[in-house]
Amino acid sequence: MTGGPSQNPIDPIAAGDLRLDAPAFHRNCAPIWAELSGYLKDKQGNVLEVGSGSGQHVIEFAKASPHLLWWPTDYDPRNLASIDAWRQHAQAQNVEAARRLDLGALNWGLSDADSGTLSDLTAIFCANVLHISPWRTTRGLMWGASQRLHPGGLLFIYGPFKQDGQHTAPSNEAFDLSLRSRDPEWGVRDIADIQAVAHEHGLLLAEIEPMPANNMILVFERRGR
Predict the structure, then answer these.
(1) Distance between CA 95 and CA 203 in Å, rounded?
(2) Is the CB of residue 183 less than 8 Å from the CB of residue 207?
(3) pLDDT of 11 higher than 90
(4) In terms of C-beta density within 10 A (0-12 exposed, 13-18 middle, 19 or more buried), how is residue 140 classed?
């Protein structure tokens, strides 16, 4: 599946309003887009967001990139409702309705129509999912990306990571211990382990972009056939 509970609380905007407000969005949206925009500014086509959460990121990204069509997805019904509420609130013309997506399911659990449409993607963006889900979720992401990105397409993965078996900050180590105490199948992943699975599926690690608060963006590129 696309992940478990968010690492940060997500609260309703107001009573009766389906929009959720994720504190992390206000901290990391601008830095994330500063990196993504450099890769996507000259691209066209469909971009899939895996694990869209509240939906706030995809709305802001879409506003900044009218040349791209964004497809938000999530596993949690509450998040799916929030994504569509934000979409309606923003009157976003280049954001599709939210789709339920399960990284562990055949064809990611997408309908036949969506599965066909989302088979020639320009890019996939996935934030704060891999560490709050079982390792099979990482495998499902890489397998699906290899099937759905067009040759040269990009997979962006944002979050905290270990490098060479070591945490990059004490705060990440404490966060990892907290995650594993909640679920032994969760935890901060090592870049080398992710890279190995990606390589199995024809995805090359092209860049590691350092981000604020001891996070990173891993940029993978799908090799051509």
Answers:
(1) 26
(2) no
(3) no
(4) buried
Q: Give the domains, in start order, of the chain with CATH numbers.
A: 11-222 (3.40.50.150)
What is the three-class DSSP state of 45?
Answer: strand
The structure's pTM equals 0.93
Buried b / exposed e across 28-46, counting CB within 10 Å, b at 16+? Answer: bbebbbebbeebbeeeeeb
Instruction: State the pLDDT confidence band at 205, using cuts at 50, 70 and 90.
Output: very high
- Alpha helices by DSSP H, listed for the chain, are 23-40, 56-64, 77-90, 112-117, 135-148, 170-182, 191-200
Q: Please, what is the average pLDDT of the chain?
A: 94
Rounded Cα distance, 108 and 117, in Å: 13
pLDDT, tens only, 60-113: 999 999 999 999 999 999 999 999 999 999 999 999 999 999 999 999 999 999
Q: Say which amino acid occupies 163.
A: Q
DSSP 116: H
pLDDT digits (tens, 9 = 90+) for 123-142: 999 999 999 999 999 999 99
Judge whether 110 and 147 are in contact, CB under 8 Å: no
Adjacency order of strands within the sheet including 161-163 = 166-167, 161-163, 189-190
Per-position DSSP letters for 52-82, written without gaps between them: -TTSHHHHHHHHH-TTEEEEEEES-HHHHHH
Bridge partner list, 12: 20
Which residue's structure tokens are 């509450």? 78
Output the pLDDT for position 3: 40
Sign of CA pseudo-dihedral 37, 214, 217, 28: negative
